[in-house]
Amino acid sequence: MDLSFAEIKRQFALEAERAAGRTLTSADQLPLHYEEITPAWLTSALVPALAPALGSESGNAEVVGLRLGEADEGTSSRRRIHLTWNDAGQRAGLPASVFCKSTFHLENRYIIGMNGGIAAEATFYNTVRPKLPIVAPEALFSRYDPASLNSLIIMRDIAGEVTFGSHELTLTEEQARSQLRLLATLHARYWDSPELETELAVWNSWEKYFTITVEEAGFGPSCARGFQLAEDVIPARLFPRAEEIWPATLACVAAHQRLPRTLLHSDPHLKNWYIAADGGMGLNDWQCSSKGNWGRDVAYTISTALAVEDRRNWERDLLGHYLEELRAAGVAAPDFNEAWRIYRQQLFAALAWWTGTLGQPPEAPKMQPAATAREFIRRMAHAIDDLYALDAF
User: Fold this and answer.
1) What element of type H or E holds 338?
2) 3-class DSSP state for residue 92?
3) First-to-last C-alpha distance (Å) of the chain
4) Fewer C-beta neighbours within 10 Å, C or N terminus of the chain?
5) Backbone dihedral region of 127: left (phi > 0), alpha (psi from -120 to 50 degrees) or beta?
6) 132 CB burial (10 A radius; 0-12, 13-18, 19+)
7) Displacement of CA 303 from its chain's centroid (Å)
8) pLDDT tens digit sequence for 153-174
9) Which DSSP letter does residue 123 get?
10) Helix/strand/coil percentages in the chain, nearest 5
């Protein structure tokens, strides 16, 4: 169910009124803020998911203390919780901390609530993640309220085990190939699958997700504003064609209606990837996941993950590798020339996600540092210019 921002605000106020003065003891109650979480609530939420590690101690483990880590606010409200277990939990080696994502604040529900991202991410961890042989975080608890769009996802804390991506991270060619293998595994699993309309019905189509974000959350003017703000990092040949960028963006979104569909991560910029302990790549943050064509994920990944010169040297081989992985999984993948055309076209909506971030609406939560947005815009704008992508339609 898609809600207007007025309805989200109304439900947010009702939620706070109904929960006044309560004490959380059961996972059936969804917290409204991190300070409301109690050891008893964490015991109820975490022990069922940790039962395999507990064995005969499954009925005895309890969280007896907690300490909240530093707040990290953005499109979601993120926080680490440090746990103290009783003797049974300590004997079982249960985790000393967990990592949480929530939409406890009204601002968090603003963009990702209206376009269905809250429901999509919570459902991903409950329904899709257990079926996918990919490197991605695992949730110990994942729930959302469809009326108010409050949500909380508690994940295994992988800090210290992995290297999280940033716009300053340099990947090797093999790591880039690892990214494409992961995407091919995800896409092949749901390629034109009937499950897109049954088990995955809660996910919006990419076109609907984009349209709601642009029209209801004010992202359209933000993209134009961000493009102008980034003039100094956009190739001199491309910037004068600014008026052609938005029509190309709408065309690349509309193309999803006639192209093969699958489940997309839909926001696979480099900050949402991490290097796992074995050197391969894992993919985090599924709040923009939607149903659409593979080209969005592939174009978005390659164009943000790689330095401009590396992308120029590797992108054709990387796209060929992705297509080979699809075929190995039994998918009737497009031929290279068709895939190359789709790849060039889909660069535009990827660019919009970052020009819109740089020029974001004033009422939106601060989404990303300007340095990150500017670097990703630079990389994608160079890809659009190098590949004459405006001529790909």
Assistant:
1) helix 336-345
2) coil
3) 33
4) N
5) alpha
6) middle
7) 16
8) 999 999 989 999 999 999 999 9
9) H
10) 50, 15, 35
CA 378, 379, 382: angle at the middle one, nearest 5? 85
Residue among 97, 101, 106 at smallest CA distance from 122? 101
Tokens at 347, concatenated: 């660069």
The one-letter amino acid at 246: W
Query: What type of residue is 187?
Result: H
- Based on its alpha-carbon atoms, the radius of gyration of the chain, rounded to whole angstroms, reads 21
Percent of the chain with pLDDT over 70: 96
State yes or no: pLDDT of 1 exceeds 60. no
3-state secondary structure of 223: helix
β-partners of residue 155 are: 99, 139
**Amino acid identity, position 389:** A
Gap between the Cα atoms of 310 and 303, Å rounded = 10
If you write DSSP's letter for every residue of 142-198 in order, what string do you get? EEE-TTT--EEEEEE--BTTBEE--TT----HHHHHHHHHHHHHHHHHTTT-GGGGT
Kindly state the average pLDDT of the residues 233-242. 97
pLDDT at 216 over 70: yes
pTM exceeds 0.90, yes or no = yes
Closest by CA to 221, choosing from 355, 367, 363, is 355
CB of 352 closer than 8 Å to CB of 249:
yes
Query: How many CA atoms does the CB half-sphere of 299 hold within 13 Å?
Result: 28
Would you call 280 helix, strand, or coil by DSSP?
Answer: coil
Could you read off the pLDDT of 9-41 as tens digits, one per residue? Answer: 777 777 776 777 788 899 999 999 999 999 999
**What confidence category does residue 107 fall into, taking pLDDT thresholds of 50, 70 and 90?**
confident
